[in-house]
Amino acid sequence: MPLQGPFLVVADSPAPDVVEALRNAGAFPIIETDWAGADDALATVTPEAVVTEACADASRAEHFAKVLTERLKAGDRAYTPVLARTRDDGSVQLADALAISAAVPAVRIARRLSAALRVRTLHATVLRRMQTLAAHGDPPPPLPQNDALDDATVLVAGRGRSYPALGVAVGERVGLVGALSVESAARALNTRDIDGMVIGDGFGPRIVEALLTVLAEDVRFRDLPVAVLGGHPETIEDFYQHLPNLDRVAEGPERLVDRFLPFVRLHAFGQQLKRMLKSLDAKGMLDPTTGLLAHDAFWRDLNRAVDDAEKRGVGLSIARFAFEKADRRVSLDAARLVARLMRQVDFACREADNSIFAVFTETDLRAAHVIARRIASVLRHTMLAPDPKQGGGIETAVTLATLKPSDNVDSLISRIVGEVAGG
Questions:
Q1: pTM of this prediction?
Q2: Which structural domains are found in the chain, ordered by start?
């Protein structure tokens, strides 16, 4: 699909390889400017994306970054990707820009830009849907205002000497899932939301190739950021075409994380937008942060489910999952795992105290015990640890109650929380 512009290319000297790669990908129009004229270019055109070469004057690049940020944040602008070419594995000059080495073929710029523009398209779709709903007098749920990196989870696979340092460097910035084998890495990819993957040392070429093959053959991971620390240049060469956000960083863990996090933030933002679209499709009944029911929708559905169970004489059970010392990140991780594990006929929500209520319709207490134990077991072995340096999981306390003939919603809830609650 052609890249619909305009696209802004900023470089101290002409960058014909970049322009040719963009044109070959169908990009039009392309505006070229040097760093001295970059501010003026922004005053005359609002780009769909920006590609920059390294700037000899760091202060000028910093100024341009501020002007660009202010311009792009004005109004309801969809996300605008900024790709920054760098001469080495060093940090980029523009904050939050997506780094790409100047040494790689320019064709990878077009592939990486296409991946970023898919998030832009998703963002634009969400904004249009929200405006349409608002125009019809149906206020949509707001977009999450927090930094998407706060909700991101990165899978770190490795078992070499740098693995502990790599785990600490990643875990201090985002949620961390560790894997010491291909099998455990594959399980994590299939059971949870992963916003980036780092392949550390300790794996041979065949293992690295196996990991990348798993990612390249599954469309779900097409745009997943993947960073390979250190070696294996020949092994990963064939995967660049299928994984546009694949990169190899020769420097240490800290440098890798600095270059990698903007890609993780972008992927997590894309996941936010997908959940937001589902929430809009459900007219706000789904929480765009967790994928579970919004609080008000949960209590409305619970009241209807209780009435229906009493009228039809069928079972209904409710479970409360509470997590000791769970912070916001851990609680969100648990909620998204529960959303994956719930049956289609059941529903759940996340409460203000970070606990989760799950309702099992047409289910007696015995069957509810089986379901709740299965969910609790997965949470116990899968949830993020509150402190990645210490490792280990979080204990999940589960309380169950089943609907009695004399029950209403308040009395049912009181048996699992110890006091009367209501919606």
A1: 0.90
A2: 4-140 (3.40.50.2300), 148-263 (3.40.50.2300), 290-417 (3.30.70.270)
